[in-house]
Automatic annotation (TrEMBL):
MF GO annotations: carboxylic ester hydrolase activity; lysophosphatidic acid acyltransferase activity
GO biological process: one example: phosphatidic acid biosynthetic process
Signal peptide: none
Domain AB hydrolase-1: 51-157
Pfam families, per the entry: Abhydrolase_1 (PF00561)
Protein name: Alpha/beta hydrolase domain-containing protein 4
Gene: ABHD4
TM region(s), chain numbering: none
Keywords for this protein: Hydrolase
Record-stated family: Belongs to the peptidase S33 family. ABHD4/ABHD5 subfamily.
Keyword Hydrolase belongs to the record: yes
Domain of life: Eukaryota
Length: 328
């Protein structure tokens, strides 16, 4: 009986999420179609005569970018497997207890499978990834299958390097930190999505309204459409993606799969742009120091500041290529 109640609750939350997703997508003026590509929730603009571009999300959403980018591209944007309405198959990888490499391969292979089913693996396409999506983008095709990449744009990408986290020494002075670190390690995979479905709807809306204020205010809706969408993402019961993400991080060691060892041998023959905000928590100096890209861009006060650009025409081309992307 308890299982039946949970299953009914989960099914209801998914239907609610689909409803508010459709309201969010109504902000896009360009015609888009929604499909399910082997479990991947997919949205695409309809003009197939334009070159394709694939957008991989981080914590943000791409809705405000589609109309601009659709002037130059056929835009595809997806829910990464385990997030949003991209539901893994029943026999898929269980992220708990898996190695970080297994999680990475799981996401990379899901993108490769999506490209195969859509036919994009046979075409040249541009690839844009934000935050975690930037990590997957660089790993999925930029390092593994670069031949089909026309252009790679990474927005505040995670995983270019590890984090500098001081290790805790096991001595008397640090015993409280040792206990704290032990507890964090013990409950590291206990993601908020496990308990948020148990919180009352109004209380959860209030919590998210305070913590995601920038996201909610970035859209033109006068009602709670954006807030309801975020709330039902967290109440949907689909926790595979968030749990998998915790397997790539360690509270005492930081990012477990830094790309720096592989980037030493990365010599792409396509354009690579890495973009950061002027108050970005990711360190832009790493990309500069290792000469990882053709262009490094810093967004400042909602404008674009080009750190390295050879000409005005090149700057205009670059601004067109990333489309004034806003992920808040």
């Amino acid at each position: 009986m308890r299982f039946f109640k949970f299953a009914f609750h989960n099914d209801y939350q998914l239907k609610q999420l689909e409803f508010f997703e459709s309201k969010i997508m109504s902000a896009i003026k360009t015609k888009i179609i929604k499909t399910n590509v082997n479990g991947i929730n997919t949205f695409s603009t309809t003009d197939a005569t334009k070159p394709p571009i694939l957008l991989l999300h981080g914590a943000g959403i791409w809705v405000k970018n589609v109309d601009f980018l659709s002037q130059y591209y056929q835009v595809h944007f997806i829910d990464i497997l385990g997030f949003g309405l991209s539901k893994p198959k029943k026999n898929c990888l269980n992220p708990l207890g898996k190695r970080p490499q297994d999680i990475q391969n799981w996401w990379v292979e899901s993108i490769e499978d999506w490209l195969k089913h859509t036919g994009l693996e046979k075409k040249k396409f541009s690839l844009v990834g934000h935050s975690m999506g930037g990590f997957i983008a660089r790993m999925s095709y930029a390092l593994k299958n670069p031949k089909n990449i026309e252009k790679l744009v990474l927005l505040s990408p995670i995983g270019l390097n590890g984090f500098n986290v001081d290790k805790i020494e096991k001595n008397y002075e640090n015993r409280k930190l040792i206990i704290k670190n032990f507890l964090i390690q013990k409950f590291w995979n206990f993601t908020p999505q496990r308990i948020l479905p148990l919180i009352g709807l109004e209380r959860l809306k209030l919590m998210i309204a305070k913590t995601r204020r920038g996201v909610v205010s970035a859209f033109p809706f006068k009602d709670d459409t954006v807030l309801d969408y975020i709330v039902h993402i967290n109440r949907s019961g689909l926790i595979t993606g968030p749990v998998a993400f915790t397997r790539l991080l360690n509270p005492s060691e930081g990012w477990l799969l830094p790309l720096s060892p592989k980037l030493k041998y990365f010599n792409p023959d396509f354009e690579v742009s890495i973009c950061y905000g002027d108050r970005d928590w990711m360190d832009a100096t790493y990309a500069e120091a290792f000469d990882l890209c053709n262009k490094i861009i810093c967004q400042e006060n909602m404008g674009i500041k080009i750190k390295s650009c050879e000409s005005l025409e090149e700057m205009n081309h670059l601004k067109r290529s990333i489309g004034g992307i806003s992920i808040s």
